[in-house]
Amino acid sequence: QSLSAGMAVAGLVLLARSVRLTTKFTSALDIPVEFVEKNVKLRGKIQHITEKGLEVEHVPISVPFLTALQRKWQSNSLLLVRLAGVELSPGALLWLQGELKPSQLIWFQLLGRQDLALECLVLVNKGRFLSVCLNEEILRQGLGRTARIEGLRHDSRLYWKLHKRLLRAELKAAKKNKGIWKEESTPGKVMDRVSSSKLMQTLKQFANWLRSY
């Protein structure tokens, strides 16, 4: 009897997990805390690109019968997804609208939740085996600056790992005078600007963080 009871409990746990994985999230508050803490990747369709962020329709894992049953009571509200660690320039919105197609599938990795918005790394497929991180691509195009990654502990390894990737992308744009860096005409001026910017200050913080470990 104890074995049967254990199997029943295990079955309920698996069912609960499958329900969560197949549930269509229509609000940032609906997403379980552990999903955010474990930086789970979710799939979705781009519906609108706004100044506040990407409005995304969550596309959960599809399971026959269970998915059809859930659709009867799930709403069609959209998730607000923001590019974590990036401060967008005015030209970034137009670039995103030209780069992303309506109903395009994306993956968004949960890093944090601020009010009703999700702070994420957004991944877009660019071929069968290639995906591009929009957070980094925006910075490589010179259409934004690095910012704090809200939702992650600023003394964690993941925070600095991701922040370092974003800093490298921003530095590439600065060296090539792309986007917001075009006003700087010579490499020397670019590096002077970079050395006095938040970019260099953050690198110094990163170096201090490494010494502490």
Automatic annotation (TrEMBL):
Major location (coarse): membrane
Signal peptide coordinates: 1-18
Presence of the UniProt keyword Transmembrane helix in the record: yes
A Gene Ontology cellular-component term: extracellular space
Keywords, alphabetical: Acetylation, Membrane, Signal, Transmembrane, Transmembrane helix
InterPro entries the record matches: C3orf33-like, SNase_OB-fold_sf
SUPFAM superfamilies to which the protein is assigned, alphabetical: Staphylococcal nuclease (SSF50199)
Subcellular location(s) per record: Membrane
Membrane topology: Single-pass membrane protein
PANTHER family for this protein: PROTEIN C3ORF33 (PTHR28434:SF1)
Protein name in UniProt: CC033 protein
Source lineage: Eukaryota, Metazoa, Chordata, Craniata, Vertebrata
Gene field: Cc033
